[in-house]
Amino acid sequence: MAFTLGSTTAMAAGASTAPTNIVVGADTTFPPFETEVNGKVTGFDIDLIKAIAKAEDMTVTVETMPFDGIIPSLQAGRIDAAVAGITIKTGRLKSVDFSDAYYKSGLSVLVKNDSKITNFAGLKGHVVATKQATSSVDYMTSHGFNPSYIKQFQDIDSAYEALETGGADAVVFDNPVNVNFKTSHPNVKIVGPLLTGEYYGVAISKSKPQLVAKINAGLAKIKKNGEYHQLFVKYFGGDVSGQVMAVMKPAAVAVAD
User: Fold this and answer.
1) What CA dihedral angle connects 232, 251, 66 and 30, to 10 degrees?
2) Sign of the dihedral through C-alpha 244, 249, 255, 257
3) Which end of the chain is more exposed for a tag (fewer CB within 10 A), N or C?
4) Averaged pLDDT, 141-149
5) For the segment 18-31, what is each residue's pLDDT rounded down to a tens digit?
């Protein structure tokens, strides 16, 4: 756990003692942001939160969990923060706090190379696979997509498998993840423009308000010293389209549910 019983009690009483170790939830089915290789949790988000923590003299304990379990775990106080490519949304801001935005993303449409689908409008009447409880589902339903044509999976790898095996005609999901899949699967392509502009943030328990300031301070430090940029080199081949160099406050960039 992040804190001893005594330190947790002190926090609850309003003491100003800052945490020295934070328990961070992560969903490992979201490469290149989070994945598990040979039993080790790794990825852009994992390196990011560790670098932020180190800059603020903190350490990190990572706990893996399904994406739809992250917000409840933060609300219950079982974890202090979470990184899982979590889009900053107005509804989520009611349940948890967020750091300043650290990644600019968007949704895209992935299809097989021989598909006649050329954009989001062309998905009508086709089966679309995606990850359960994500903004992809929200986007499709809010744009009139028939829910019975949406196949929701616990992890995005299963959605890609459905596309590969003919169980779905397309995948709608976060563009950097689609790009990452396309890189190793030359039989698929991305069609149409990005469907949204959305920002990822570190989700933080509302019971740890002091942690928001520390994570924002750490994020600012790794931007300044170059560690932030190096993560884009390591995980995105130097593609910096997702970089957020300005300070983008969560309330200013939150998208509607």
Assistant:
1) -20
2) positive
3) C
4) 94
5) 569 999 999 998 88
